[in-house]
Amino acid sequence: MARANAAYYADRDPFADFTTAPEISQIFGEIIGAWAAVVWEMLGRPNPVILAEVGPGRGTLMADARRLTARVAAEFHAASALHFIETSPRLRGEQARRLPAAQWHDDLSTVPAGPMILIANEFLDALPIRQFRHEGEAWSERFVADGAFVELPCDAPPHLDGEGILEVNETSDRFAADLAARLVAEPGVALILDYGSAENPGDSLQAIRSARPADPLQAAGQADLTALVDFGAVGRAAASAGAGVQGPISQGVFLQRLGIFQRAERLGLGRSAEDAAGLMAGARRLVEPLAMGALFKAMAITPPSFPSLPGFAA
Ligand code: SAH
Fold first, then answer.
1. Is residue 132 situated within a structural domain?
2. Closest residue by Cα to residue 301 from 196, 134, 173
3. In a domain, 9, yes or no
4. Is 133 inside a domain boundary?
5. Residue 15 belongs to what domain range?
6. 128: CA distance to ligand 1 center in Å?
7. Residues 187 and 176: beta-carbon distance below 8 Å
8. Nearest CA to ligand 1 atom 6
9. CB atoms within 10 A of CB 20
10. CA distance 51 to 190
């Protein structure tokens, strides 16, 4: 599965298969830009500050965020150095067209030391999972062989509770722990947005091809393979590195607290009725529970005992 997804992202345009919040509404990136500017104040206005994004896709979120901060948070804007963590050469090219000042990295380890604000939207769901089955006393792990699932008996995996199929994302747990250690030491704050649950999601592997569900076994390398993010596991990994964790809360609540509807209304003033309605429809899609508002969650990783971040406090 890991390899299949790396091949998929390396040379395809994933946005032919699925869409993401920043591609739905410019307001998403703008709100995150404003959020980052407030978080920068809370960190004590470090200058320079690293503004990092993991898996920036087409660069849309950051382009929208930067356009806003240039206007309303000039000091933060000028203090921030852009760093992108991205493995796809094709998407790096798109990001470079929109944000030529950024620097690129294969992973967190080469991002320079110093205070940091990091954004990860729909990144963790793309990392490879392992699936285990727990029935009574017996554990087995699921593999793919000759185009079918096979289950081979194994020892009980550490830290795994529950019955039936359970998922583990070791890459995501390691990423969260490494990131958290850094945010404690430097210091800094990370915002993670993704679809997922507060508990182990069970069997959530899915393949998306041309915006439709596909068979994960048939579509290797040609479909986007994803699994729900286990925010409980991400939070435990971050906490075990000594970091503070805020959330997860639903994306809908987070964006509403940050004023997404007020922003949509203001942007609509002076535009055509059709454009204004489109802005409001985009905002609703991100917030409404039956659209993206409930399945998607927001979580933040902070230094220990950090005050409540915008959007996370009622
Ligand atoms: N954040 C963007 C894109 C989400 S798609 C958006 O919201 O539109 C997932 C992104 O993560 C893509 O940019 C993909 O190339 C990148 N990616 C996938 N696996 C990665 C890895 N192991 N390291 C760094 N980037 C990765």
1. no
2. 173
3. yes
4. no
5. 2-127+170-202+221-302
6. 12
7. no
8. 57
9. 19
10. 10
CATH number at residue 237: 3.40.50.150
Q: What is the mean pLDDT of residues 245-250?
A: 98
Residue 22 confidence (pLDDT)? 98
Which tokens hold the place of 109? 């380890």
- Please name the residue whose Cα sits nearest to atom 20 of ligand 1: 87
**pLDDT tens across 4-30, in order?**
577 778 777 888 778 899 999 999 999
Choose between 261 and 214: higher pLDDT. Answer: 261
| Ligand 1 pocket test target in 86, 92, 119, 225 with most atoms within 8 Å of CB | 86
- Where do the DSSP E strands lie in the chain? 49-54, 80-85, 103-105, 116-121, 130-135, 138-145, 148-154, 164-168, 188-197, 206-209, 212-214, 224-226, 229-230, 244-250, 296-302
| 57, part of any domain | yes
The 10s digit of each residue's pLDDT in 24-76 is 999 999 999 999 999 999 999 999 999 999 999 999 999 999 999 999 999 99
**CB-based pocket (< 6 A), ligand 1:** 9, 14, 20, 22-23, 55-57, 61, 85-88, 91, 121-123, 126
Ligand 1 center from residue 175 Cα (angstroms): 14
How far away, in angstroms, is 176 Cα from ligand 1 center?
Answer: 15
- 101 burial level (CB within 10 Å; 0-12, 13-18, 19+): exposed
175-210 pLDDT per residue, tens:
999 999 999 999 999 999 999 999 999 999 999 888
**Can you say whether residue 147 is alpha, beta or left, with left for phi > 0 and alpha for psi between -120 and 50 degrees?**
left
Total domains in the fold of the chain? 1
How far is 32 from 162, CA to CA, in rounded Å?
Answer: 36
pTM for this predicted structure:
0.96
